[in-house]
Amino acid sequence: MDRALYLAMTGGTQVMNAQAIRANNLANVATTGFRADFEQARSMQVNGDYYPSRVYTMTENPGTRQTQGALQQTGRDMDVAIQGEGFIAVLDGMGQEGYTRAGDMQLTMAGQLITGNGLPVMGIEGPIFLPPLDELSISEDGTISFIPQGGDGTQITSINRIKLVNADSESLTKSPDGLMRTKDGSVLQPSNEVQLVAGFLESSNVNAVEEMTKIMELARRFEMNIKVMDTVRNNESASARILERG
């Protein structure tokens, strides 16, 4: 009976882990450039200084869905979306380079170009800083052009270029902060093949209906594991009563 209890307990725990992955996907259904995570369960043997007679389930995140989300027109000059494959290079909170599809750009008071969640955007020559300006535009290759503050409209200046990168999806992994990184920790080189479209943002590629369906399915699995544990407890109680009468 303890084997059945162990299997039901580990099964319920792993179902909760799968629920967390699906719930995180659903919570980010409206997050710009978000990539949905997959979840799957597989059997794992319990190894040790004994015969490996027991197997439990383990939930894992085998990868991230890399399909492109729908492009939503915003009309804002500093909003950009990647056409097809590729990523925008940014710096995380530790100053390490990561990659995102979120193109909701902003300028800080110091003139630094950042994403909507405050991550510095990387250029070919490092983090991007801009002087006071009246108008800004971003071309398909990421080149930033602007009219200086007080300019007459003809003084268009180009400065730096957003670092756009591309890599095989199998060589990338998604970190807990939502950024993509290379599995070996290397830094990707700029790619001239990645193109941007200004005035658009890429929506999340999460399918809300699919996630809700999976969450309900996982909830039923969790209930099944709880029922198995209740059944084992009831059987143990019945066995104890039989032994007492004997």
Automatic annotation (TrEMBL):
A Pfam cross-reference name: Flg_bbr_C
Primary location: other
InterPro entries the record matches: Flagellar_FlgE/F/G (IPR020013), Flg_bb/hook_C_dom (IPR010930), FlgE/F/G-like (IPR037925), FlgF (IPR012836), LlgE_F_G-like_D1 (IPR053967)
Subcellular location, record wording: Bacterial flagellum basal body
Domain Flagellar basal-body/hook protein C-terminal: 198-240
Assigned keywords, A-Z: Bacterial flagellum, Cell projection, Cilium, Flagellum
Domain Flagellar hook protein FlgE/F/G-like D1: 81-145
Stored SUPFAM superfamilies: Flagellar hook protein flgE
PANTHER family: FLAGELLAR BASAL-BODY ROD PROTEIN FLGF, FLAGELLAR PROTEIN
Name listed for the protein in its UniProt record: Flagellar basal-body rod protein FlgF
Native source species: Maribrevibacterium harenarium
